[in-house]
Structures are given as C-alpha cells and as structure tokens.
Amino acid sequence: MSKIPIVKSTVKPEEKKEIILTPLEKFKLVYATKCKEASIQMYKPLLKTLDRDEENLEKTERIFIQDDKFGIKGLSCLLTALKEYPSINEFAFYQIGSGDEGIQLICNFIIENPRSNFSLEIFDNITIMGCRQLSRLFLTKGPHILQTIILDHNPIGDAGSLALAEGAKDYQNLRHLSLKYCGIGTVGGLALVTLLLANTSKCKIESLNLQGNEIGSRPLSMLGLALPQCNTLKEIGIADIGVSEDDQEALDCFCDGVAQNRSLEKINIDLNNIDTKTAPQISSDVFKRILDALMDNRTKAYLNPTEEEEEKEEEEDWEYEEEGDKEAEEGETKKEEALKATSQKKKLIDEHALSHSVSKKISQPKKQ
User: Fold this and answer.
1) Is the pTM above the cut of 0.70?
2) How far apart are CA 345 and CA 278, in angstroms?
3) Domain at 58-79+86-306, CATH from 3.80.10.10, 3.40.50.300, 3.40.630.30, 3.10.620.30
4) % of the chain residues with pLDDT over 90
C-alpha cells in the first residue's frame, strides 16, 4: 500500500494585529477596571471633560473634583489610572473626603511618576499629618517637581506649618505656597518666613500667601529682615494677619525691607487695622512707602531685563524697525505728494493774487 504524501500548507495563519491605544483609551481601560474591582462608580464629570478636550484636540492638564462621595477609594483608582495619562500635572480636590490619607496617596504618585511642574490644590480637612507627607516628598530625592501647593482653609495650624517649613527649606523646586485661613499663629508664621532667608534656606519661593492667619507683628518684622536678601519673591499676601496701628515698629521694619528688596511686584496688606481713624497717618505712610518701593522694583526690573526678555525685546525692536521702515517709505511718499499739492496750491494762490492785483490796478481811476 503506497503512502500518501503529506503536503504542508503554505497558507500562513492570520497574524494578530497589535492594537495601539491612545493615552486616554489606556486611562479609561485602567480606570474602569480599578473601579470595578473596588465596587465603585467611575467619576463621569471627569470622563466628559477628558472626552471634550480630546475632541477639541486639547491636552488636559488639570483635574478638578468636588464631591464628598468620591472618597479614598475613588482617589486611589483615579491615581492608578493616571499613570497612563502623562499630560495631567495639576490636581484640584475640594472636599472629596480623603483627607490626610489622600495626601499620602498623592505624594506617592508624584514621587513615582515624575512630571514637570506638579501643582496641588487641596481643600479637604488637611492636618499636620498631611503636611508631614508633603515634607516627606520634599526630602525624597528624585526628579519629581512639585511647584505649587495651595492648602487654603485647611486646619494645619502651627504644627503643620512647622512640618512644611522643615521639608521645604531644602527643596529648590517649590515656587508658590498659599496657606490662607489655616489657623496659623506666630510660631507657624515665623517658621514659614524663614523660607525666605537665603542664608538658611535653599527654597526659591516666588509667592507666599499667609492671608487670614493671626501671625501678628513678629513674623512681619522677620519678613522685613528677610526681604533684602530674598531675590526670588515676587508676591506676598499678608492681608488680615492681625497687625494694628500699635505695631508701628514691625510696620517700619517691613517697609524698610520692601524698599531694599529688588524682586517684589505685588503685596496684599489689606484687612489689617492700620487704617483706622486713630492712625490715619500710619496708614497713608505705610501704603505710600510700599507703593514707592514696588514702583522702584518695576523700574529696576525694566532696566535689568533677563536674557529671555532681552531676546524678546530685540525681536520686537526688529519688527518695529521693519514696520518703521515701511511707514517711513509711505511717509516719504505722502510727504512728496503733500509738498507737490502745496506747491500747486501756492502757485494757484500766487496766480490768483497776481491776477487780483493786476485787476485792482486796472480798475483804479487815474489821478488827475
């Protein structure tokens, strides 16, 4: 019995095509999976925002969530999914119910997923425990950059301020710190002002807002002493800090510091009792000295521009010169036309005057 030859098939099995997902699709897939595992609903307003930005070909950089039912589980699922969506570097969480534990998750995310210029805005009952987590982030070496922290209306108190200041003094990436109405007193105020002391701090803060904290006159005096050596601070918020007309020495020290500073551009000293009827001269003098110093700073900034500003100014000058040359050419043409028109007009006037003079002489009767 003859063997039947086996013919190998030359038809190749259909190759599986690799499906490439966009960052948004990856985020949605991971987010849906994690929410299902945690038995919670996905946060639909966020998904709508991401879809809208995707349709408009815009990159989503900021996430804003205000929902007391979001909770620590929702935050955990979200942060896990955000590892797939690298464009987002701004977090704004208002009353989401995660508190200090949420801060710990966020700090871990920032350290493990370094991106440029992280911004953190949280109003969620943050206390000293959350501030310690931020301090841990400051002290952890790595490429992560947390540039902005806004913890307004959280009860961090003096203890929280001390924890923040301890970590931030050696952290060179922090640029903006806002702690409005956080229950901070004199001790916390002094600790935060030390961030501006160049000889003891590596921090390069550009804006510091302590509005609504009863820090009093001592931190204000220290601020005055720190300002002359601080060349990065552009904005300071010390409105409603419990300073009154009785704190003349502290106000004088602060004004002297502002006058010697070369970087400040904006100061908010409103809502302090220095403009009462009992001390109108103090008020007018303080505000005048501050305004004069700020105007002087702007003038010096203009006279000593940065390299980027100089390059921009050169480009603007070049464009201006080109426009100027064009306008000059047009101006010369218009000038020639105007001179020609004036010459013709003058010629007509002269001819008319001559004609009038001749006719007048002819019409005059001869003298007998």
Assistant:
1) yes
2) 72
3) 3.80.10.10
4) 51
